[in-house]
């Protein structure tokens, strides 16, 4: 686990190499072993200096999140003692009196970089794939090994802000330019350069601040900047956070955090407070402040929910944990895309970026060429950002065939249909494509709502027919919802998952139903926005409450993006399908609003520049001023203030989240979703559902199933059946159950 070696020159090398793991992590076992090796080196008079190295391809990935997720957080005092040990170990490392070099061969993140920060010198291999940073904020935590205190003291608060508050990763060169790494050297010279630094003659002797009066001077290389007398934090006059420049920095930082998080993420606020308080204190006291904030966040359900979904849930999805066993992996070379509009062109773009040959088919050459032009434009953006060379761009575009000829699909291993959302149009496209495809080729529909089983009726090979629901814009949205029809084979599912992995998207697998999972939950969110507007809630209040609840945009803005006329077409198609099947159409109560916006006012959304918002060419979008004429606002909500209005805002925020959570639970009960984790991953990655909750199902657990059911019952009585909870939740409430309980990733896998 931790290899220890001392050479003839008195240089000790401590190498992290945890068995059975692809990457080193900080956990109880590894830290205990490391602390023992460190102490041995510090106490050995023969040892003149220490190198920290890794036996893996990367350095250290950070803390073991399984350990954090499994931590009992009930006793805050015990937690303070537990996590103070890490601080003490790192502090012993940097105050032990011997110079220590971090030989960073690859990625060093979180605690893995914090151990480097507690070294006196940091040398990194010139590895373009290596990432340096503190990503803890992305999972609801802050760096708990001194990162909030060492980084600002090294590079100043302004330079530290993106690293700590946004979890921004750095290349080794960027880290060197900032001053977080001292040297970047060829990989083959890493250990030799580390040893050369240690064996060079000491240039100064200093008495460190922590040593106290009467202490002997030691090698200046073994003393951190903050342990030297007279140290000042860079960036502020006199190094004082209470200086005018310091005050302005933190005022601006607070405003930025509030603006970006809407107050729903506790971690960025805690980080900012931790930095501000810590920089006013002696270093050891500052570390105790950090530990206190870390423990506070760890005890908050937000962190555990985010870790569970945004780390373990995503990890499982990306590793294809739900892929059928025993099916050989499909290696893709050539795929077809039917429909060269924004969605089809987007699918083609991410596919060609993955190295695939693409056949892009549309009704005529002009339409197909327009789709190829979109691909070219997206590739040009990557060239401009330095993420793609001109040569690679040209090669990628050369792999795209744009044509109206279905015959060009011959040899495609997969064809994705992204044509008009009409059953007849899709059926025609299916038949034309299958006429030239090999018998084993997969045919996928990108429909957002139409049941896959019904669409597969047009197929001669329904076992090869599946749904691949992409999200717009395809180039940016990470999720693909894979929909399994009644006749879809396990081989087709496995091969479809292979494709999604190939194009570096995250898959979730759902069973067939109208709207599947994401579209119906998205529709529930939009419809609740419509209901609120009809109730007299001002449009701006609806949108602001949605963002304050953690949603990226409000329901009205979202409806504009997906297209209001598409919402109307889906509603109309659903109504007609119900009539054809002799079934009762379940009205949402917003049909009249859609009729008004689409049929009478011709406001289709962003696509025609007219929706709930206006889209002026010379400025930012703004709510349509005449909206209030058609949907008058309640004056008490429009002009009122005080407790009544604040209570209403709280209620609106809950309604917008709860209506999505209820529908997600219905999907679980109906076996559209087969497990809670896919519901959480899908709701966040596909819908932007408030990430601080851990997802729509995790929200129910955070509130408590019993309390959630009670609140929904009250909402149902007051606002309608959209809040009626499924039997699943009512039974769980009666039994005192939760979805995740004492969840542990090792048990869930």
Describe this structure in words.
The protein is α/β, with parallel strands linked by helices. The strands form five sheets. Strands 13-12-11-14-15-16-17-18 form an eight-stranded mixed sheet, sandwiched between helices. The chain has three domains: 2-299, 2-enoyl-CoA Hydratase, Chain A, domain 1, CATH 3.90.226.10; 334-516, NAD(P)-binding Rossmann-like Domain (Rossmann fold), CATH 3.40.50.720; 519-735, N-(1-d-carboxylethyl)-l-norvaline Dehydrogenase, domain 2, CATH 1.10.1040. The chain contains 31 helices and 20 strands. Helix 5 packs antiparallel against helix 6 (157-165) and helix 19 packs across helix 21. The radius of gyration is 29 Å and the shape is globular.
Keywords:
Rossmann fold, six-stranded mixed β-sheet, 749 residues, N-(1-d-carboxylethyl)-l-norvaline Dehydrogenase, domain 2, alpha/beta, 49% helix, 2-enoyl-CoA Hydratase, Chain A, domain 1, 11% strand, 3 domains, eight-stranded mixed β-sheet
